[in-house]
Amino acid sequence: MIPPIANRFVAGETHGAVVDHARELETRGVRSICNRLGEHYTAPEPAAADRDAYRSLLDAIAAADVGACISVKPSQIGLDVSEDCFRDNFEQIVDHAEESGTFVWLDMEDHSTTDPTLDAYTHHANEYERVGVCVQANLKRTPEDLRRLADYPGKVRLVKGAYDEPGHLAHRGRAQVNDAYRGCLDVMFERFDGGIAVASHDAAMVKHAVDLREEWGTDFEIQMLMGVRNEVQYDLADRYDVWQYVPYGGKWFSYFSRRVMERRENLTFALRALVGR
After folding, report:
1. Domain ranges of the chain
2. What are the catalytic residues?
3. CA distance 221 to 147
4. What pLDDT sits at residue 272?
5. I need a labelling partner for 153 at 20 to 30 A (CA). Which of 103, 110, 257, 273 fits?
């Protein structure tokens, strides 16, 4: 069982827990992107197990008729085993999602995974439009990737990027990354007909997207993490299409630790929970 100190950031350990969280979020006008925690499997068996767990989650979402979709990490379903393993497992997940019309996001990991991740996305986007992929604004290649992705009918989620990438491949300073994020949004609103997901808790980035929508007339959605600026998410949902990224599963501790350490307000929350205040 996940302790109270962690359940701000992780929905629970089971399909039932994450579906219950999605149902509660829906009453606040926010929909859920459900991610089963796990990554960097180097053997095919755990990758296959998480593939099957996602298929079961898709069944649970469909049975509950709740506003939710799923998001999958490539290394979780076999990319560290082989690209063929990853592509086969992802295809089985997408095929299962197609039966119920559920959306499937493909997360992005470090720069070494960019090409196989984008290749898998573009392959499926031509056949099943309810797929999306994440790209990272800190990578210097991303504006060109976005120009190519504009030709596909799926969705693209833009994040700032959380991996410590080498300087010749990525923008590293905060101001540089912010400028890169704005530049990527400029490309997306200019070239995309829709399917833009602004995944940021930075109010300035959301404001830039709002301004671009006024200029280009292109709708977008906002995505934020569970447990980070929740009240802001509920407020934004009155005016925009808002989705919350909702982790769940037994591998919750390392994820929770990262969330606590990355923002001062998260650390304050955790400390108060520890002392019962």
Report:
1. 15-275
2. 107, 157
3. 19
4. 44
5. 110
